[in-house]
Every structure is written in structure tokens, then in C-alpha cells.
Amino acid sequence: MSAIINNSFRKYQADNFISSFDAPNNIYLAIGKKEPWAGASPGEYNETNPSDVAVPIPSDTTISPFLHHDDFIALKKIPKSNVSHVIARYDWTSGTIYRAYDHLRDDILDNVNPTTSVDEGAFYVFTETFRVYKCLSNNGNNASTVEPTGTSVNSFDTSDGYRWKFMFEVQQADVLKYITSDWIPVNSPANSSTQLEQKQVEDNAIDGSLEQIDVSAGGTGYIKDDGNAQTGSSTNTIVLAATASADNDTYNLMKVYISSGNGAGELKTISDYVGATRTATLTTNWTTIPQTDSVYQVRPAVEITSSTGSGAEARVSSITGGVIEKVSVLVKGTGYRNATATVTSGGGTNATLIPRIGPVGGHGKNAVSELGGVFVMMNTRLIGVDGGDFPVNDDFRKVHLLINPKEASSGKPAATSSTYTASEIEDDSGEIVYTEFRTPINRSSDSTEDIKLVVEF
Q1: What is the spatial order of strands in the sheet that 267-274 belongs to?
Q2: CA 108 to chain CA mean position, Å
Q3: What gap in Å lies between CA 78 and CA 27, rounded to an integer?
Q4: 8 A C-beta contact, residue 429 and residue 406
Q5: What is the location of CATH 2.170.290 in the chain?
Q6: 34 and 393 in contact (C-beta within 8 Å)?
Q7: CA-based diameter of the chain, in Å?
Q8: Alpha carbon of 284 to those of 183, 223, 237, 248, 295: distances in Å?
Q9: Residue closest to 28 by CA, chosen among 410, 438, 407, 439
Q10: I want to staple 299 with a disulfide (CB 3.0 to 4.6 A). Which of 5, 241, 316, 393 is the partner?
Q11: Is the pLDDT of residue 425 over 50?
């Protein structure tokens, strides 16, 4: 028997943890331990000779919470507004090969500690404009040289051959709270008043759409023809350039695409080709008849089949030396949970295509789930004496999360104030759920400690 903890479970736990900061819970950051690390402390750590340079590793034992309570100095309540999902930060850098989204991979696991290899690299980037983009295609494992920009609700290509999907922009209010050299905040659904661009992406996401079809093997021997249409095209024909093949039926069952000029964007199937006149007859009529300014591309046809989805349409957009290099999706369709894509004409053999199935709801629908938001950051700022309860001109070496402590007063009511001294909290009350040992941090009356704690689920 084998089993895994799904990423959806990890996100569920992270969601629940964030929700736990709502009433009636009261969660505090506690600092402790004025004295230097020294000597053995059975049950608290295993090191026998720690120091403020060689900080020990905390142990989670039955007695450790009692020892931590004894070391408490002060506590500060953490509001839910200071808690967020976070994801690993990967700054876009020219010359880096980013990993394309792959529905057959565990993106969250692979993206926690990516390497510089294509197989293990990051599949999203953080740009200098504080925006996050998901990589849908990396141009055949080539380096990215053009930084993605804009907030389009649709995926888009950059001139280096990459395809990107805008996911969200970090809001200014969250920059100081959550951005570090290692982490950036992420949330979904977006707040429509402060995250309008992200909200538009979420609203326009298409469940089961095919955003990308990868070429895993380009095959050999595929033909193509490019040029401007000649005069004489009709409602269901196109007269190809004089340089097109003079042999009958050469382009039968291939696709002709108008890339620019009159009729731009139309894609038709060729049913018959007469070489002497360079005339291709189509299975369906043009909406706009091509003219001499119409630039066409004749390419092998791509057939998409699925037992679930429908409506997607794609074309071969690049062939070099008979090898298919790129397939472009023209219509994304909807409802796909499985799909195959096959090159069905063009005279070549052995091309292999892989349609990439999008996440539930479509790319951009849930940035937290899609980008691996199984980490949660809590931000607390200790400013000077902070409510008169935080001493200055002294050190602390422990940081804890303490859930639902009680006041050390008559009746032992629940602690609800913003700050407390250690003596104002009932001994051993509450639940310590996080412990971190640190080198000494000295506090002064004009200092501010910006403490960011990250936990993984």
C-alpha cells in the first residue's frame, strides 16, 4: 500500500491556519530568553555546549513548553491582516531557462527548491514591476531574454518565444509586510477593489481550456509554403504564390492560415490543390476573401481529440528543415480533462505533440493553488517599548507562536489585548505551536524588529 498527502490537503491546512486567526482565537508572537545560550538543557535541546554563535536546535518534548513559558519576555497579538499565503520568490533574470508549466508534474514540490536545470527550474517569475507570471512555454528549453509585462487576461508570447500568463501583482500595502529575498505574498480570490487586474484574470479564466500544445518530437519530412496570395482567390479558394508546388494534390488536407493582411487570423483546410494554377480549394468558405496583401502560411494540420473537452483549434506555426518546431493554439476550447493532438498531413512522419491540460478553473483562476501557496507568513513589528510591555536595552533569543493564552488575573480570562508582559500571562496557558531559536537580538527604545515567520504545510 502506498499513499501521499496531496498538495490540495496542504493548501487546505494552510487555509485553515489562516482562518484560525479569526475570532474567537487569539494568536500571539512571544519573545523570550534574555540569557545567553549556554550549558545543557535536557528536553529543550540536545546540544551540550551551545552559545550565541552556535545556537541550539529546539526539541519538541513534553517539558519544552514549560521551559519556554519560563523564558517569556513579552507577547504581541498577530491580526489576521498580517497573515498571508506566500510562495517562493524567483526574480526574472535574462538568460535563465524557466521551466514550462506541465500538468504531469508536481509543480509545488518541484518549485520549493528549484535548481538551475531545465527539469527542476522555477515555472513562474517575479518581475521588477512586482508582477508574477506563469511560464506556459519556454520555447523548446531556451533562455528567456524578454521580461514579461502587462496584465492581459489572456496568455501571451514574448519575442524570445516564451509564452506567459499574468497571475497577479503584489499590492503596495503588502510589499513591506511580506516580501523578502525568498518570499512573495499570494492570495485568491482577489480583492476586487485593490486587485482589479487579478480579479479580471480570475473572472476570465476558462475551465479546461488548452493554452499550450508542446512539441516533444518534431519528426522529419514535413512540408510548408509561405507567400502572398495572388489575384483570383474566391470564396472557397486561394491562389498561392508562384513559388508554391507545381504538383497536384501537394497540399491536400493541410491548413492555410492568413497571418496578416486581408482575412488575417482565418484558418482553413485545403481539400484539393491544382499545381498548374497554384489554386487550393477549401472545405469551408472564407469570411474575408484573401487579396494580394494577404500573407499566408500552409502547414500540416493538427487534429485535437478528447473524451471531455471541445472547441480547441491549433496550427503548426513553425517548421525548419522539415522538422516541426512549434504549434500555436488559436482557439482554447473548454472542458478538457484529457486530450491528444496529432499531425495529420504535410508529408512528414514521427512528430509528437503534448497538449497541456490546465488546472481546475483554468490558468489564473486560483493563484494560491496554481503556484504552490502551501506556505504561510506571519508578520509582526515590534516598535520600541510597544504598548509599554516590551522591555528595551536587553536581548531576546526565542520566538514562539502562542495560541489562546489566558491572563494571569482573577478568573483567568482569555488574553485579548494587543500586548502583554510575561507576568501578565497565566503560566503554561495556551498552546505553543511554533518555536524558533535565534542569535541574540538587542532591543532599544528606537528600534523596530520586523519579524516574519514562515511555516510550511
Answers
A1: 225-228, 295-299, 255-260, 267-274, 279-282, 237-239
A2: 9
A3: 6
A4: yes
A5: 84-206+365-375
A6: no
A7: 102
A8: 52, 22, 9, 20, 19
A9: 407
A10: 316
A11: yes
Gap between the Cα atoms of 175 and 145, Å rounded: 26
Q: Output the pTM of the full model.
A: 0.92
Which residue has 478568573 as its cell numbers?
411
Between CA 174 and CA 84 the distance in angstroms is 9
Q: DSSP string spanning 90-121?
A: -B--TTB-PPPP-TTS-HHHHHHS--SSTTTS
CA-based R_g, the chain, Å: 30
What's the CA angle centered on 207, arms 204 and 209, to 5 degrees? 90
Instruction: Tell me if 208 sits within 8 A of 358, measured CB to CB.
Output: yes
Burial of 441 (0-12, 13-18, 19+ CB in 10 A): middle
Cell of 217: 518530437
For the beta carbon of residue 156, count every other beta carbon within 10 angstroms.
16
CA distance 456 to 336: 32
- 376-424 confidence digits (pLDDT tens): 999 999 999 998 999 999 999 999 999 999 999 989 999 999 999 999 9
Q: What percent of the chain has pLDDT over 90?
A: 91
Kindly give, in sequence order, each residue whose CB lies less than 8 Å from that of residue 2, ignoring residues fewer than 6 positions away.
Answer: none
Length of the chain: 457
Pull the grid cell for residue 98.
524557466
All cell numbers assigned to 56: 541550539
pLDDT value of position 447: 87
Cα 426 off chain centre by: 43
User: With contact defined as beta carbons under 8 Å apart, do 258 and 361 qualify?
Assistant: no
| Domain 84-206+365-375, classified CATH 2.170.290, yes or no | yes
Task: Please give the grid coordinates belonging to residue 8.
Answer: 490540495
User: Is residue 79 within 8 Å of 65, Cβ to Cβ?
Assistant: no
d(CA 205, CA 373): 19
Q: Cα(410)–Cα(278) distance, rounded to whole angstroms?
A: 97
Residues of each domain in the chain carrying CATH 2.60.340.10: 23-79+384-456
CATH topology of domain 23-79+384-456: baseplate structural protein gp8, domain 1 (2.60.340)
Instruction: Report the Cα–Cα distance between both ends of the chain, in Å, rounded.
Output: 24
Measured CA to CA, the distance from residue 314 to residue 303 in angstroms comes to: 8
Sign of the Cα torsion 239, 241, 245, 250 reads: negative
Cis (ω within 30 of 0) for the bond into 189?
Answer: yes
Catalogue the E-assigned strands of 358-393: 375-383
